Prior knowledge:
Blueprint: H1 3-18, E1 27-31, H2 41-56, E2 61-66, H3 72-77, E3 82-87, E4 90-93, E5 113-117, H4 122-135, E6 139-144, H5 152-160, E7 164-169, H6 175-183, E8 191-196, H7 211-219
Parallel strand pairs: 1-2, 2-3, 5-6, 5-8, 6-7
Antiparallel strand pairs: 3-4
Helix pairs in contact: 1-2, 1-7
The structure holds NADP nicotinamide-adenine-dinucleotide phosphate.
NADP nicotinamide-adenine-dinucleotide phosphate binds next to α4 and β6.
Protein name: Ketoreductase domain-containing protein
Domain Ketoreductase: 112-231
Keywords: Multifunctional enzyme, Transferase
Amino acid sequence: MSRTRVGEVLALVQRFVGEAESDGSRLVVVTRGDMTLEPDPATAGVWVWCGSAQAEYPGRIVIADVGSHDDVALAVASGEPQVGGVRRPAVRAAAVAVTSEASEPQGWDPEGTVLITGAGGALGTLLARHLVTEYGVRHLLLLSRRGRVGSEELADELEALGAAVTFATCDVADRESLSAALAEVPAEHPLTAVLHAAGVLDDGVVTALTPERVRRGSCGRRSTVPGCWTS
Ligand SMILES: NC(=O)c1ccc[n+]([C@@H]2O[C@H](COP(=O)([O-])OP(=O)(O)OC[C@H]3O[C@@H](n4cnc5c(N)ncnc54)[C@H](OP(=O)(O)O)[C@@H]3O)[C@@H](O)[C@H]2O)c1
């Protein structure tokens, strides 16, 4: 699915929710990117903000990822608001299973380096602090385009807690720059985890979005970290 198509879907959803006569009817947004496997960035983006649109207009929008248009009715009949991987005969709801068992903290290797992209941001800061205080992580590589600038306080705090903090000034969507940053990870503290929190936030209610805002906020930059999506 192309970015142009993302804008077209946005316009369609906006028209639907804006039309009085559409009250009581449902809009079914159909994708064919197999969301449960390896979606392309635009399909993933449509799924994410359609999820927000569903929250704003409960019961009025269904999003279904199907193998063929013959499967659309099957997806709608499931009664789920988000249906992924509809490939006859199976229908998989895109609901996230929540376990009731409290999970014990996993054993993070204190000798390993944990990379956090977008580390200077709201989520990255929380993640870094949480990993150090709750999981005993001791080697952090904090990556963002501004690097250390603006994150001195965070670095001081983490270092006071016993962590060694290294900054990388890098655009995570720039493959060469990212490779260079990863090459700096010392062999004695190899990379053991990557947490991807880099992203550009430009959110708003569905009727206030424009293709440009969607591009800037969700799909403008594709991460070079495989399988990682920011929003
Ligand atoms: N905050 C929330 O409650 C929340 C909830 C759900 C989803 N999200 C999503 O999570 C992501 C992060 O949210 P946030 O609230 O933490 O945003 P934020 O406070 O704006 O932080 C974003 C961070 O990402 C970095 N960054 C942006 N583009 C980058 C790039 N190309 N390469 C490297 N670093 C980059 C920024 O630093 P530089 O500008 O220096 O690069 C900044 O450190 C966003 O995509 C957001 O939509 C956030």
